[in-house]
Amino acid sequence: MKKTLLVTCSAPPSLREEIQGALEGEGEILYLEDISEDRRKEALSSANVLLSFFFNKEVREEEYPLLADLDLFQSISAGLDFLPFEKLPEKMILACNAGGWAPQIAEHTLGLLLALTRRIIPLFNDLAGGKFNRQSYTLSCLRDKIMTVAGYGGIGRKTAELARCFGMKIRALNTSGRTADSVDFAGTLSDLPRVLPDTDVLLLSLPLNRHTRGIIGRKELDMMKKDAILLNVARAPLVVEEDLYRHLRENPDFRAGLDVWWREPTWGGGDFESQFPFLELPNVAGSPHNSNRCEGAMDRAAAVAAANVRAFFRGEKIAGLIRREDYME
Prior knowledge:
The structure is a single chain. By secondary structure, the chain is an alpha/beta fold. It contains ten helices and twelve strands. It folds into two domains: 4-100 and 296-326, NAD(P)-binding Rossmann-like Domain (Rossmann fold); 102-286, NAD(P)-binding Rossmann-like Domain (Rossmann fold), CATH 3.40.50.720. The protein has helices at 13-23, 40-46, 55-58, 102-117, 120-128, 154-165, 192-195, 218-223, 241-250, 297-313, and strands at 4-7, 28-31, 49-52, 72-75, 93-95, 146-150, 169-173, 185-187, 201-204, 229-232, 255-258, 284-286. A seven-stranded parallel sheet has the order 8-7-6-9-10-11-12, with helices on one face. Strands 2-1-3-4-5 form a five-stranded parallel sheet, sandwiched between helices. Helix 4 (102-117) crosses helix 6. The longest helix is centred in the C-terminal third of the chain and has 17 residues, at 297-313.
């Protein structure tokens, strides 16, 4: 089996070192940024594994046909909903970076959760306005609360691990309905109506595809406790925007922690804008889709992705496989 890995993203020395170390000598590594314009065609057509971050920005659309013989597309990004699936050659296997960004996203998620349970943002705003009112808001603790993790993959599992340290009970929802982890319940997304009514914290760490878009709307929100918390660190369109805003406004004890937004510049430019004024609500904590950021994050994520390529080269089981039909209408 030919073993040529072509890295299409910008690769400073630290990232190259991580990729090389994770590959452990399995195959040749080429970097597209090192290759002259007149040799791009040859490099893209001869590689059998592609390692990319923002594929759409790294490979030109007219070059997509050159990937016809590619065996594996391995993403450094965790989500692949931005890929032009209908334009990609059908032969290639597609893999996301399962767990590559999980540690810091899990910490960020707990940060949003704690900000909401302890009402840090409105209390700070009161203090900044000269109000020292310790009774302004009802504070809550996490011990014995139920966290339902919709999308029990790398991020969901790591967040659940941290949540257990606070004494939370974990319900895990994934595609198989099974997990070897110690959880209080394991099921699939079809179990949402069963588990939502007594869920205290709903974490969305799902991929966005045609099955999950809008999975949380008015019906699901109405099933939840009036003082429940929704956390979304995956993709905003998993939730119906207007339904969530109206629910938050009509139920002031319901809270939402959002790291992702319905219109944001993360994927391909544009401005951040919200159709509804979420950030004016006291029961919302938000961040600008930066839960994946921390020192050395890109290098570590690239190492996880490269380790998956190593497994592929060795004929071992690889993680993060996705089906393109789940993303195509």
